[in-house]
Amino acid sequence: MYFEIGVAYESIRHLGTAFLAELPRLTAALIIIVVGYLAARGVRWGSERAVRSKRVHANLRVALGRLAFTLALALVLLVAATVAFPSFTIGSLIQLLGVSGVVIGFAFKDIFQNFLAGILLLITDPFEVGDQIIVDTFEGTVEQIQARATLITTYDRRRVIVPNADLFTKSVTVNTAYDRRRMMFDIPVKGTDDVETVQRIIEQAVRSGIEGVEPDPVATALLVSIVGGALTFRVLWWSDSERGSYLIVQHRVLRAVHEALQTEQLTVG
Prior knowledge:
By secondary structure, this protein is of the alpha+beta class. The chain contains 7 helices and 9 strands, in the order H-H-H-H-E-E-E-E-H-E-E-H-E-E-H-E. It has helices spanning 2-52, 58-84, 90-107, 109-124, 164-169, 195-206, 243-263; strands at 132-135, 138-145, 149-154, 159-163, 172-174, 180-190, 220-227, 230-240, 267-268. The protein has a 5-stranded antiparallel beta sheet with strand order 4-3-2-1-5. Strands 7-8-6-9 form a 4-stranded antiparallel beta sheet. 17% of the residues are buried.
């Protein structure tokens, strides 16, 4: 019993001695990590500030800042590991990555895919914060572009989190890519077969100075079908691209056309 206690005591003493011997290196490694983390943040800030002076897009500044921060932090951790464990070398790191890289890659495949897609989205800049986009069945305003996912706020104030890989591999419609967009609406008119008269009435109504309707290109009305005695005209006009704006303009256009047709005693529908 005494022998076992003595052996345990000696083991603990040797561990304590070894820990005290390693303590300066561990402390130095910890200091390197703390200082290096702050320096990496400074590198990120400096890189973002450097490209800001060249009027680079905000999304690209964020991407470059994140890349600079990640590379700087990886270098800091490598230096700290070398200080804490003198036997640790670049060759050991490569061997470790070779053994564990496959396992980590399969385990975090989706995370890495979304992260890389997020970086590419920030660099290629297909859309930006504030744009109104459509992806799959979701439509709304881009709230934030993160490294893993993009946050979209729908028009009824719901948040949709879309993985960046979906945005990078699927078709995305950017409604606000341009300041103006062409709107159209089909209006069936009954009670006449005079195409030119109906076309003139509709075009005069839309071109009457409705707020939000662009004067150039000029609004037009085109006959697209004749079914069951009804003439269907496709009304085309240009207005602001934002949903909140073009819906209001569409309301004004349809009301003006409806009133003009009623004045001429023509039936819509």
